[in-house]
């Protein structure tokens, strides 16, 4: 793309702001329903946050004027993975239970494989590259669907999509043992098998980025991206009766539904910001969006510091809980976290300090 597409930074900034708010309530027992994950099948607005970020990873891969070298792709993926494992070890770095899968770990894998496929197709016309990405996403999702619903698991059961009984849980227990998500220890929402379709989410982001970088008229780009988003949402819902929309399993229906929703929202941002030029409100989200990995790391560190020192519970009780109803107080604490992190990111932005990962 010739000039920077501000709407992509804004979209990523909106996603990161949502991430901070949903991850840092003052009281997990008092949360408004849109800020909670679906218990299993189905979705809430919170379930859109992670796939939206992976989608923007794909879009961002297409933004550079020069294709990233193999070495730089490997270095970026390795940096994200190392940061992920360090954060997972906090605060005690207990080798017996140190979680190996995780959000940043999945981002590293998706970026690595998607960036390499993008690089390998560099000699192809833009439309053909986009077709390859969409076809790759569909192939991954169909393969995952067949494995999860047609192949008997190690217990001899076919189509078991329960938390402990699905194919991914069996694989994760065999590979990672005690190094799984602390809240379950028997399955992991960012496990090995469900990472396969999440790569498809990133492929669909690349396809969208290729379209935004085409020579088509800006208004036409926005319109067709929105139409593609609606079509992907329809595919997700059509697949839902056979393979339910489920964030924790990252089902194939979830891939297309969430990628469609991301494309639809990005088309609105692109039309408003890059086509119509309505940019007066965008700066805070640009600040959050251009340094997304730094924000993720800072948010995790802030959470640990507030919990370990006891300062977080004290602030919540004395500055929020005593002045507002429980849910408002809990939301206020999360927004307070975002304000602190925004101040840090704004300071970094003024100094042009960016974590290039």
Question: TL;DR?
Answer:
With 357 residues, the chain is mainly alpha-helical.
How does this structure look, described?
This protein is mostly helical and 357 residues long. It has one domain (6-350). 65% of the residues lie in helices and 0% in strands. The chain has 13 helices and no strands. It has helices spanning 6-23, 49-61, 70-89, 103-120, 126-150, 167-176, 192-212, 218-239, 252-275, 283-289, 292-309, 311-321, 326-350. α1 (6-23) runs antiparallel to α2 (49-61). It is globular, with a radius of gyration of 20 Å. The two termini are 19 Å apart. The mean pLDDT is 95.
Secondary structure layout:
Elements: H1 6-23, H2 49-61, H3 70-89, H4 103-120, H5 126-150, H6 167-176, H7 192-212, H8 218-239, H9 252-275, H10 283-289, H11 292-309, H12 311-321, H13 326-350
Helix pairs in contact: 1-2, 1-9, 1-10, 1-11, 1-13, 2-4, 2-7, 2-9, 3-4, 3-11, 4-7, 5-7, 7-9, 8-9, 11-13, 12-13
Question: Features of this protein?
Answer:
13 helices, globular, 357 residues, mainly alpha
Judging from the principal axes of the Cα atoms, what is the shape?
Answer: globular
Q: How many structural domains can be distinguished in the coordinates?
A: 1
Q: Report the order of strands and helices.
A: HHHHHHHHHHHHH
How widely separated are the two ends?
A: 19 Å
Unreliable sequence segments: none
Q: Please count the helical segments.
A: 13
Largest sheet: none
Gyration radius, rounded: 20 Å
Helix content: 55-70%
Compute the average pLDDT. 95
Total strand segments: 0
